[in-house]
């Protein structure tokens, strides 16, 4: 493997996260003779590897967070070692070799988080040490000699030890910039040495028992000190020495006993972060407003109230974070909301009553935390002053124009523009001219001339060109060249320094060629050559050539010529571009390279897509993960299968999905979806996906896996987790290579498009860490992927492929591990699965039913498509005319004449049973029904005369069409539909083979007209379930007959037994049962005085034919009701309405964004309560009022657009002299004037699934 030849050129390598606990440290490390830095963090190393001794040029070695118990070994032989990091191990004083402290070049030493009891012996011998970290140990004392020799220290961290004092020689560290002494018991240490450290920038004394008496009285000498942390101490006030720090930027005084701040804090003019949490402050001084650079202010857990925050706090113009939780605030000053840059405002655990209205003006605010304020009432949001939404013109005239209305109609609506009369205009102008005095025009002209002469005189005195001297420019001078941006192609310094630059064309774009390849041209490539030279006059000049290889493709030739001209325009050069062809170069071109031009076979691929047959490697993957699928490659053998998982076997044109007997169904589904993506993105949809279950495998499957194993058993532990992928970034320099690791950082994109990064060790990588200018290696233990960016240099690509081969062979891996190449834009699906949410985005409507989407972004994205489009045509159409009775009766007869047979079924329990014939036409709101209808249909006959009668009978059978109607009650669950789909529907299909059976699903009051015709207007809907009717048989029942728009839409629906629901324009049926053996009860048909005679006849017919014959039947006209049974059965006499004019005028509209733009559609006249969509806006016009009904899931955008549509509708009605008032209605709070427009209004119910 060393034959690849890249190991000697590797200068840096990061193997962190590998598993070397069993002595599996790679021996090939010894071949990295030029290695300068090596990281072996978190690799489970028990000791220092012996192979490191051969790395004679190693300068930086990191061994942090391992299990090292000693550093004895070969470290002393690394004479070039400059930095040694052994943080987070199990090192003791006896396990540290003395000879490592005699390394002359050692400048960084990190032994933190170990088990050291004292400072290592002879540490003072490392005189060149610059960084020393001994934190998180058990050191009790520091020898005096240590700081006598280590006078060049820049960074010293002794925090989290057991120090009680510091040596006086600490004052010798005059170059020290960072001193961290936190979490030590330095009660009796005065820290007088601090004044001698004039270069100090960071000082941390957290939890060191500081008081006002054991701090230096003055720190004036520390002119560079920027960061001070004295938190978790016993300070009763701000130490006076801190006021003498002019460069202070960050100050942490939290967790002390400070009760008051001095007015001297205005001395911190550069302060950016002030932390005063967990103190006893009751107020802030007014001088705090002078800290104009302050960005972060933390005041949590104090005793601040409204008076304690100065009103001048608005002067903190750069304030971004204000934390004041757990205080006594009832209000906050309005001036705080004038800090325009405020991003985080935390006021939790206070006594807030309200907030200033100006809080809504904080446009940059990302976090507003007001939790645990029980009496808080948020101020109302400011009224949006924007006139239009989505840039939609909601004016009535514009909407009528879009709806195709005539100009006369638009003019009548107030939008017509008056016709201009040119003759009248001329007469008016002539009249004005005749009436004006003659000298008035002359005076105006004279005044304008005088003003012009004065301006010319002033310009001449100033030496400027006068108006009389101005000349017009020629037409070619007026022309301006279009401004083209070449910054994405050529950098700013191109052509500004004498020398030669060469670009080669790749993917239609010029890519800069490395200087070492100047004069060496690939035959299949095209190049652009720029020579910049200095003329004798001192100005720059240029020569531009574009070179064409003999084997180059057409796209490269064209792009070379185009970009050569672009380069000339970018430089503003006057020279022409020169075409050079391979083998026929000019002398000027050869002189650029001093006649040293050579040709190389090959070149980059064409920018055009080419169709190639992909050679697929047969791989077996285990599918791991609940939410996101993670594929882990396994050995291509039957023993790799595990019954607890699903596996994906990819053979190229056949993809097998194998589900183990103990695997979850979701894992199989996710594996299937993954296979679909592979087939779509990598196989052009030509692969076949085969689903297999354990125990039902095919012979081909076992043949691929090398035969069927004797048994498939679990062979992985229950807590198995796949190895964490590691991402390496390939670095290329002058004669060296580097392979650093990319830290796992989950990039989160906020709505303000700012990127922030936080560390989530357990999360997968995200796509955004891949840079198109770089090349990466992704090590997944069983696979090594090489990802190549589109704009990465050619040398970097070649080096990455070689490094990938070395990395594959260097670390211990299973035998089935392979190296896979991925080009940006054509990545393998397996590679994408290693990243979080790559290719998992679905196209959704961010407006419909959502208030959290970034509406402004969507508007901007769609402004060239359909943003700004609104369809309100339905508002201007006339109301649908009711169907005449004669036409309805004709349709009823035609549809029943075509009906050959009808069979009825009812769902009882979990199966469908036949419905008794005497219950035909009776429906219950909790039940589901199925009706099998067979219709005669007209089919053209192609038979010749003389055919046999048997063939004619066969033709008659083919003339029947089967339609299945599924009716679901309003309160019935969807289980009935599922039961029908998986059981009864299949039985029907088996009964009528060879014919296409149509299935129509309907819900209560949303039935098909043809279906309703089969019941001949005798359609009765009861409450509850059919099998529970005996329990309700002793209660009176009231049914309301209503016809909506057509006689076919006549229904008797049971309503609450309430006399106030009667109406003089309708017919009702009242069923009153008796507790008597002689008569079971009586059924009344109540006919209103203004009821339709046809409906009265229908009600009488229904009680005689569709109700129990044992009941007494009686028809009552309004006003003739008997008091003994009728009023007693209905619940007594109450006033009721005597008119229903709304029935002739009611209209229902739906406002929605379902079409991708805002549109209004009208429901038919046979609408019902269930037509009210919970995520839309409904408009109901009852003839007197217009109701705007708002669902609970309606988005704010649809609400605003719906309000505009209602206003347009009302304005349109006013233009027709029909006045309406607008009333807003929320779901669940509908008034009676609204509910009366719906037949049998009831409560909204959530249907169980």
From TrEMBL:
Q: Which domain of life does this protein belong to?
A: Eukaryota
The residues forming the signal peptide are none
Per its record, what are the GO molecular function terms? actin filament binding; phosphatidylinositol-4,5-bisphosphate binding
Q: Which CDD domains match?
A: gelsolin_like (cd11280), gelsolin_S1_like (cd11290), gelsolin_S3_like (cd11292), gelsolin_S5_like (cd11288), gelsolin_S6_like (cd11291)
Among Gene3D superfamilies, the record links this protein to: Ribonuclease Inhibitor, Severin
Q: Which InterPro entries match?
A: ADF-H/Gelsolin-like_dom_sf, Gelsolin-like_dom, Leu-rich_rpt, Leu-rich_rpt_typical-subtyp, LRR_dom_sf, Villin/Gelsolin
Which cellular component terms (GO) are annotated to the entry?
Answer: actin cytoskeleton; cytoplasm; nucleus
Domain Gelsolin-like stretches: 509-590, 639-702, 759-810, 1160-1234
What is the designated name of this protein?
FLII actin remodeling protein
Record organism: Eptatretus burgeri (Inshore hagfish)
